[in-house]
Amino acid sequence: MKKYITDFTIVERKPFGNQYFALTLQHPDSMPEIAAGQFVEVEVKGERDVMLRRPISIHDVDYERNTLTLLIQIVGKGTKQLATLKVGDRLNLIYPLGHGFTVEGKNVLLVGGGAGTAPLLYLAKKFDSMGVRPTIILGGRTKDLIPVQEPFAQYGNLLIATDDGSQGEKGMVTQHSQFDQPYDKIFTCGPTPMMKAVARHAVSKGIDCEVSLENMMACGLGACLCCVCDTDEGHKCVCKEGPVFNAKELTKWMA
Amino acid sequence: MLEVKLHNLKLKNPVMTASGTFGYGEEFADFIDISRLGGIVVKGTTGERRQGNPYPRMAETPSGMLNAVGLQNVGVDSFCDKVYHRIKDIDTNIIVNVSGSSIEEYCEVASKINALENIPAIELNISCPNVKKGGMGFGTNPEMAAQVVGAVRKVYDKTLIVKLTPNVTSIVDIAKAVEDAGADSVSLINTMLGMAIDVEKRRPYLSTITGGLSGPCVKPVAVRMVWQVAHAVKIPVVGLGGISCANDALEFLMAGATAIEVGTANFIDPTVTVKIVEGLEEYCNRHGIKDINEIIGII
Predict the structure, then answer these.
(1) Which residue range is the domain that position A228 belongs to?
(2) pLDDT in tens, A157-199
(3) Distance of CA B172 to CAs B47, B160, B219, B278, Å?
(4) Mind telling me the catalytic residues of B?
(5) CA-to-CA distance for B36 and B45, rounded, in angstroms?
(6) If we measure between CA atoms, which residue out of A3, A54, A53, A57 comes closest to residue A211?
(7) Does residue A50 sit at the B interface (CB-CB below 8 Å)?
(8) CB contact, 8 Å: B169 with chain A?
(9) CATH number belonging to the domain at B4-295, selected among 3.20.20.70, 3.30.413.10, 2.60.40.10, 3.90.660.10
(10) Nearest chain B Cα to A92, which residue?
(11) Which 44-103 residues of chain B touch chain A by CB within 8 A?
(12) Which pTM value belongs to this model?
């Protein structure tokens, strides 16, 4: 899949609490095909200590408006600087990067937590366009830490799990009453302990499972070999061979 | 106008890529016409396939980054059987960075690469800071450096560039030693040994604790070392360390480098190498320079 380097224009900025914000970026003409689970490398300008781009997963794509949306959690200097961007500002992206989700299955479960909910929206939209209505379980310590909810409800059966019971069922996503069901495929993205628990469950039940990993990256192109995950076949680049891996390849990672 | 020569190796321009920052070139072909470059130095290649160091092996630092990849690569046999056939017809100089843990391994890799028709040069890496055995160990001692270069010289008959580490008391002594041992050119600098600590977690950012520092923060040190070495040896010098624009490249050329390599900047802008080529042309036109060699080593 050909990759591009392009200046997008910010057409919408939406905060979600203090920790998250979404940027909708418009392409100057027309965007190439983007797979669910792919990401962009965003240039960060104006922060002295930030030199490298930041990898951000693609939250939504709208081919009619020629836009893509990034849901960003403020975690460090880079994302803090990105949070200062305003509508009308330009943002340089290298995209679409990485190997995305395999959109297959009839009875599918999407499990997300925190910023990991981001790529699942575009995945849910892809399923919707194929006439499949996924079950979607989103989790967080408390309801305010599940940034985006409503858009998911239009594409699937949205369920919530919170540690404090402030919304949905009380407990972790893996404890949700709809979690342990006979799905034919599970997709997950979120905090590593959550993804490991989901993947272990899927493997133990013989359910095909794809996980979207996040590692620190430099190039995003598979050149620097910094972001590797220790897969069963040895080190693989999360940026190029991932970020989506099948749980079958990740026995060592799951352990 | 931009043509330069490293020993017998003709470069259409002085701009090459630094090993480990440009993959095998293919990774950047979506963004630029890689045949516009003077050369591509591909990933460090060892006798056997290597997994490299455990994650995390990268940390961003002010105006730079630390890496501790540790020579992850497919191994020389897989390079010759598979990778070579994918890249051999790219219309530029494909140079293989040759690494190892012993003199025997360096010689094994060099002689296998010697047999590849479309690889006109190797860059002998005696300066990797991220491997336990060999690597920088060979490049920090003039006698050891001369030994490995002398041994490789016997099995390798094309252009032999030797990549030097800055983590020494006198890089000039090492450069002279490898020149005497038969190197056709020296490239410098490899990364500087560095370290960064996550104070919240109270542990180093890298799994290996220390790693190699690269990026704009090392550039003044690299320019100084290139200038010192260029005045001390007769063989051509390849300069690298933090080059991100044409003016950076010009600094190295004026300090005495015949060619330059671009490394970390490729991660930030995958088109930067071609911009540097265009920037050099623009500089020459603006200053009425007919041949870039006119400004090499003017300082």
Answers:
(1) 108-254
(2) 999 999 999 999 999 999 999 999 999 999 999 999 999 999 9
(3) 29, 18, 18, 32
(4) 128
(5) 24
(6) A57
(7) yes
(8) no
(9) 3.20.20.70
(10) B269
(11) 51-52, 54-60, 62-65, 67, 69, 72
(12) 0.96
